[in-house]
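[Solved] Which block belongs to which protein?

Original post:
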Amino acid sequence: MEKIHHHSAAIDIGSRNIFIGIEGEQVAVFGTFTQDFKDAVSHLLSHGIKTVAMEATGSYWIILYDVLQAAGLDVWLVDGRQTRQVPGRKTDVKDCQWINQLHSYGLLNRCFVAEGLVKKLRSYQRLREDHIRSAAMHVNHMQKALIEMNLRLLEVLSQVQGKSGLSIIEAILAGERNPHALLAYCHGSLVKNKSEEILKALEGYYTETGLFSLLQAYEAYQFYQGQILACDKKIEEVLNQHQDLPEEKPKRKSKPVRHHKPTVDGLEEHLRLLFNGKDATQLSGITSYTWFQLYTEAGEDLSKWKSEKHFTSWLGLSPGQNHSGKTRRSKSKGKPKAGQIFRTIAQSLLTSKRIALGEFGRRIRARKGSRIAIKAVARKLAEQYWRLMVKGKDFVEKGIEDYKNRLLAQKKKYFQKLAIELDEKTALMEISHNQYVI
C-alpha cells in the first residue's frame, strides 16, 4: 500500500489527557485545558503536520476539533469501530500511533460533522428533545399518582397531559373533589360522549401522599414545557438572524404536526429557503417538524453522499456485509439520529391506508415481521429524500391503487415470461419424445 496522507498525525482523546502520535516521533502528551489544546496545536504545526485524525470520543472531541480547524489543519473525525487495536496491545500511546498509521494509508472514513448554522440549530434541537423525554417521564409520574388515588383518567382520556386532563389535575390540586365540578373542565365533546365514564373515573380516594406526588409531577412537567418553549424561541431567533422570510405567505396548506409541534413562526418557509425552494413535506409522512429534525442531523447539502445508497448506508438502513463462509453474522452498527427519524416516520406510515409506502411495508411485514418492514420503508423514504434534495426530482403520492396496479402489471409481465418459457420447454419435450418414438 502507498501512503495517501503525508505529514499526518493522530490524537487519542481522554478526559484528562490527549496523546499525539507523529510518525518517527515520540508520542506527546498534553492536558485537556484550553491552554493545553493551544500547546498541542503549536506542537503539530512545528512538525509540519497538515492533517490530523482523531476518534469521536464522547463530547471531548468537540472543542479540540474546533481549535484544530481554526489553526488551518485538515481534521478527520473517525468512528472508533474503524480503529480497533489488536487484542492485548491496547494503550493510549499505541492507539494514537495505530490511528496515524491507518490514516496515512487512507484506511479511515471521515465522519459527518455539522458546522455553522446546522451545528447551532442541532444543539438547540437536541436539547429540546432531551426536555421532551424528561417531560414524558413526569407524565408517567402524574399517571402513577392518579392511579394511586384510583382516579382512572387513563381509561377515559386519550392522554393525561392534554388540555382536559391538565385542567382536571389543576382543579384537583386547587382543592376541588366533586366529580361533577371536575367534569366541567373537560372538552364539550367529552362531556357529550363520555360523561358517565368520566364521572366514575373521577370518584377517587384522595390521600395526602398521592396529592403531593401529583403536585410534584405536575410542576416538573410544566417546568420542562417552559424549557421546550425557551428552546423554540432560540431556534426562531437563530433562523430569523440567518434569513428573512418573504412577506407573501404560501398558499399551500401545511401538514399538521400532531406531537411536540415547535412554536416557531414560519418554520416550513425557513426550511424551503435553506433548501433553495425544495419542499420535503411533499414526501409521505414528513412534516415541517420532522424535516427540521432531518436538517439538524444531516444538513442541507446531501451531495456529500455520492448516491442514495451511500446516504442510506450512513443512516444505518442498509444491510451490512458480515459474512464468513456460510455463516451470516449479526453485527451492531452505529445508527445516526437521522436514521431513527426515518424509522419513526416509517412506523407511522405502516398504519396508513392511503399511502403506497404503507401498503409496501404491510406486504413485507406479512412475510418478514415489523422490524424488517419498518427498516425497508425507512430506506425507501430516505432514498426519495436524497433524490429530491440532490437531483430535485418531484415526488407525487399516487396512492395505494396506483401501487397495486403497478404490482399487478409486474405480475402479468412475470407470468407472460413464465408462460413463454413453459411453451418452449413443452415444445422441446415433444420433439425429444417424437425422436425417441422414431
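(Second protein starts here: sequence line, then its C-alpha cells.)
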Amino acid sequence: MGEASGGSGVGGFLGSVGVGDLCGGTVVEVGRSRALVMLDGFAARPIGVVGTLDASWRVHFADAVAVGQRITAEVTAVDLDQERVWLSMAATENPELWAFLKRFRHGEVLTGTVAAIERFGVFVALDEGPDHPVYPGVGFITYPELSWRRYEDVSEVVAVGQRVACGFLQFDTWNGEARLSLRALQPDPFMVFADSVVAGQRLPGRVTKLVPFGVFAQVADGIEGLIHLRDLGGAPGAAPEDVVQVGDEIAVVVTDVDRERRRVNLARRPATS
C-alpha cells in the first residue's frame, strides 16, 4: 500500500485498527519525546507513535527503543485527524499487569495494604493481581485523594502496613498503576455541611486566616468560609487585622453556599443582634 492511494489508503488502514489491538512494526525514528514506527500493513510512512512514557515501565525511554528495532505494542488511541496510531510497548512488556488494570471501572472498590509513603503519594499493594515490576505497589493514591479534610502530615491519615479500601479512579497507563482514592469512600464533609444549612442561618465561627480582602472562619469540622472585608463589620477603610485576629470566636451568618465551587460565603454579625 503506497501514497498513490492517498487519504483513502491511510484512512482505510486506520479504520481497521482499534484501541486494544496489538500491532507490529519497526522503529524508524527516535526523538526526545516520541518514537515513530512503520506499522506492518502500511509501508507508505510511519504513522505509529510511542510516547516517552509508553515505551517501558522498567527502563528509560532512550534504553527502550532504537531505530531498526522490531516491536509489538498495544494500540491506546487512534487519531484520525492527525493520522496517528498511539502505541504502548509497556502493555506488551507487562501483559498480565496491563490486562489486570484494564478490567476496572471508575468507582470500583479495591482493597490492599499501604506499601510505601513517598513525597508524591502513597503506594498500595493490592490484594489481587500481579506485583508491579518497578514500584512497591500497583495502587497509588495522590495526597489530595487521601482525605476530604486538611491534614498536616500524611501520618494523620495512613501508615505503612495499614489495610485500606479505595475507590478506583483510572488506569494510569504511563506508570502502570491503579490510581486510587481513599476519600471517594468517605462522606464529603462539604456536601454534608451544605445539606445542613440555609442562607441566613447563624453559626459560631473561629477566625483561621487573614487575607487582604477579608478573613476565613471555620464554621464546622473541616469547613471554612470567607467573610469579605465589606461584611466584616469594621470601620470604612479598616484592614482585617484591625477588626479581628486569628483565633477569635465570632458570630457569622451564611450568605451563600456554592456547591459547584465548594465555597461558603459568610458575613459577620454581632452575637447579640
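Accepted answer:
You had them paired correctly. Confirming on the second one: Residues 1-7 have pLDDT under 50 and may be disordered.
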